[in-house]
Specification:
This protein is mainly β. The protein is 0% helix and 51% strand. Strands 15, 16, 17, 18, 19, 20, 21, 22, 23, 24, 25 and 26 form a twelve-stranded mixed β-sheet that branches.
Length: 256
């Protein structure tokens, strides 16, 4: 017999505490899931890593989560769900082994699609996530290629290979380099895949979406506007220091 606490919220998977007591009562191999992107992307990679996302414009995407047909599984499925940045966007509890969901977004930035299935014993199986990048309409996608000042144009490159500084309509991506914010800057969306954003007297304002996979925020002065969101999607710990003023939404979708 064991005990654990559970927290429930509409639109989210149940959150369970650590187990107290004898826990190895229900055992078994979890179901193996896969996620299939049914809407063709406009670019990018295969979505298998944060650095290789599938890329979409604003609009409606269709995804399917299903049991991997190459892996035999004999137990019945009690529930199967798709999650986008930690929020359930589709769920079935009718014994089905797959679910197809249409999801409409107008949020530019980097996002994560996950799937989970719960079998008749209550054992959870998870799919490998699909990483999704949504392009900002009217804006550009800039990737930092050299560590240094945020405002130095030669430290950034856009999709066409042109240098420039991310602006209020753009998506800024850091994938291993370190950016120093010494003056006030604004980027509509920011994706911290790895690396560091360090404050040095300036404020970084994000009106839209700030996603963190891993990395560090050091001595930052970060402001998320009221219509924006900050989401920690990764499982790595992310050291934070400085001041974060989030007038929008905080969401923790990973385990870091």
């Amino acid at each position: 017999v064991y005990f654990r606490a559970v927290t429930k919220a509409v639109g989210f998977l149940d959150s369970y505490s650590n187990i107290i007591g004898v826990k190895d009562v229900v055992t078994g191999t979890p179901a193996v899931l896969e996620i299939v992107a049914l809407t063709p992307p406009v670019g990018g990679g295969n979505g298998g890593s944060p650095e290789n996302p599938v890329v979409y414009n604003f609009g409606t995407f269709r995804f399917r989560a299903q049991l991997d047909p190459s892996v035999p599984f004999s137990r019945a499925i009690r529930k199967i769900s798709l999650l986008y940045d930690g929020v359930v966007i589709g769920s079935r509890e009718d014994g089905s082994s797959s679910i197809t969901t249409d999801y409409t977004t107008t949020v530019a930035g980097d996002h994560v699609l996950k799937a989970v299935a719960v079998d008749e014993l209550g054992i959870r199986g998870f799919a490998d996530p699909i990483y999704v990048r949504v392009k900002p309409p009217g804006g550009k996608i800039f990737t930092m290629t050299c560590s240094g000042s945020w405002t130095l144009a030669s430290n950034w490159i856009d999709e066409l290979g042109q240098s420039g500084v991310p602006g209020a309509q753009d998506l800024a991506i850091l994938a291993g380099n370190n950016a120093t914010v010494a003056e006030n800057v604004t980027a509509y969306a920011v994706s911290l895949l790895n690396g560091k954003i360090e404050g040095a007297g300036g404020t970084l304002t994000v009106p839209g979406f700030f996603s963190i996979e891993q990395g560090m925020l050091k001595s930052v002065d970060l402001r998320i506007d009221s219509q924006g969101a900050m989401v920690l999607n990764g499982d790595a710990n992310v050291p934070l220091s400085g001041t974060i003023t989030n007038l929008g939404t905080n969401r923790f979708a990973g385990s870091g």
